[in-house]
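Sanity check

After download, print the first record. It should look like this:
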Amino acid sequence: MVIMSFAWILPLLPLAVFAVVMATGRRIPRSVAPGLGIAATGIVFAAAMWLKSRPDSTGKLGAVGFCFGGDIVNQLAVRMGSDLAAAVPFYGRQPSAADAAKITAPINAQYGELDTRVTSGWPAFDAALTQAHVPHEGHIYKGANHGFHNDTTPRYDEAAAKEAWLRTLEWLNQYLRA
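Expected structure tokens:
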């Protein structure tokens, strides 16, 4: 049974960066992108710790992110250690093997088969998580592209999106409600 009664927060920095990129039609220069990722991770980390400290919190935190947000979820898993109880990155770049060794949160990674730039990093991430004894799953959806869960683009894949979201909710229920 899937239950969707979780408290959700949505820090806005990653959305603001995305909005600027979309409005200007320009890519973020590679030299600037790492700094934005570090800043966004810090903001999301602070938001997560605020949520965890609320009196109505169970103290169990999960993180779900898409694209750049998937990168942030992976970085939160590295940074938060046992403060993160579950993580579901959708087509997010994977951390290095050294950083993956710091992860304790169960990871349920979602990838599109056609998104080879990101999906190609899964085997190494899988190996690093296995070596670190982190519970994890990786799902690669056949014929799906990067952004397959975004129903506002031509890349949307309804079947993959529904299956991935069901797996996401099951993962959160398993690790946040236990």
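If your output differs, re-run the checksum step. Summary of this record's structure: DSSP finds seven helices and four strands in the chain.
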